[in-house]
Amino acid sequence: MLDLILRQCTLPDGRSGIDIGIRDGRIVAVETGLAAAAGDVIDVAGQLVTPPFVDAHFHMDATLSYGLPRVNQSGTLLEGIALWGELKPQLTQDALVERALAYCDWAAAKGLLAIRSHVDVCDPRLLAVEALLHVKEKVRPYIDLQLVAFPQDGVLRAPGALDNLKRALDMGVDVVGGIPHFERTMADGAESVRILCELAAERGLPVDMHCDESDDPLSRHIETLAFHAQRLGLQGRVAGSHLTSMHSMDNYYVSKLLPLIAEAGVAAIANPLINITLQGRHDTYPKRRGMTRVPELLAAGVPVAFGHDCVMDPWYSLGSGDMLEVAAMGLHVAQMTSQDGMRACFAAVTDTPARILGLDGYGIAPGCRADLVVLQAGDPIEALRLRATRLLVLRAGRIIARTPPAITTLNLPGRPGNVDFRRPL
Ligand code: FE2
Questions:
Q1: How far is the CA of 14 from the centre of ligand 1 (A)?
Q2: Are residues 395 and 261 in the same domain?
Q3: Distance CA 28, CA 59 (A)
Q4: Are residues 41 and 64 in the same domain?
Q5: Active site positions, annotated
Q6: pTM for this one?
Q7: If you count Cβ atoms within 10 Å of the first and of the last residue's Cβ in the chain, which end, N or C, has fewer?
Q8: Which CATH number is 119's domain given?
C-alpha cells in the first residue's frame, strides 16, 4: 500500500505518462501504469514534475534587509558594501532569524528546498552564524540549508577573521569560504586560498570561495584554487563562486585555465542576476556582461550551477527566491538559447547544484526522497519561459505548498475563454 501516487507526470528528461509512487517519504516507483493501491492519488495531467530547485549561492544573513538602514540609491557593489557595513552593527539575532525564516517561506513556496548560504564571520560576536545555525535546524523539515563560513572583509585583511572563521566551523558551519580578490594584494589573495584549502583538507570539509568577483582580466585566484584543490586531493569538494573576471580574461589564457579547473574537479557557480547588474560598472560602452564563461566551462566538463546570491538586500533590491528567474537570466546573459543550452540552464538550478552541495537522495528515482515540484508547464524550457507556477511542492511525500494555476479569464469580442500561456496544442 502506497501513501501517494502522482499520475501522468512529465519528467525533466522528457519521459511522459509517468506515475510516481511514494511510501514513507521516499519514491518507491517511477513507471507507466503503476498498478498499486494508495492512500491518495493526484493526477497531474501531463505537467512537468521536477526535483526541487537548489540554490548553490546565497546570503541569508543579509536577505530581506532592503531599506535597512537605508536603500542602496546607486544600486552599485560599492554602495552595497558600505550599506552592509552600516547595517552590521545594528543586526540582532532575533531580526536575523525572523528575516531568514521569512525568506525560507518564500523559498518553500517556490519549490526551492536546498540552499547553500554564505554567512559573514567577520563580526567577532558571530551573531549571524548563531542565528543561521538556529534557522538551519528550524527549517530542516522542509529545507536543506548548508552554511559557508564567509570572511566578507578578507580572511587576512580583517583582524581576527581567521580565528572567527575557525570558531564558526567549530560551531557547525559546513563549508570553508573565502574572498581572495578582496585581500590587500594578489599575493595575499593566493595565500588566503592556500590557508583556507589546507584548513578544509584538515577538517574534511568542502570549499566554496567567492573568487575573482571583479572585471579585472588579470585576477588569477581561480587558478590558485584549482591548484590547491588538486594538490590537496580535494577534487569534487571545491567550488569557485562568481568567477566574473573570467569574462574579461585573455582568450588564450582561458584556453589553458579551463582544463585545469576541470582536472582539479572544481565546480563553478555563476550568479547571473547579480553579475549582470554589479559588473561592468566602470565601463562606458561597450559594457561587459561580467558573468563567467558558462557554455565554455560546461564544454570543458566543469559543473556549473546558477545561484540567486541576493534577494532584497544591500546589493540587490529585487528577487523573490524564484530559481527559474535566475536560470532565465543566466540563459539570456550566456546566450544559451539552443535546446541543449536551455536544458543545461534548468539543470543549473536543479541537478547540478544538488551534486555540488552533495545532497543525499535527490532526484526522481526509486530510493530518492519524495521532494517534488509540480510545475504549470510541459517541459523545462516552458518552465523557464513562463517562470512557471509551482502548483504543488512536496517534501518527503507531503504537500508543503500549493499555488493555484495562473489562468487569465478573457472577455474578448468573439473569443471567450481562458488563457494560461502554455504552448498551443
Ligand atoms: Fe555572494
A1: 33
A2: no
A3: 35
A4: no
A5: 213
A6: 0.97
A7: C
A8: 3.20.20.140
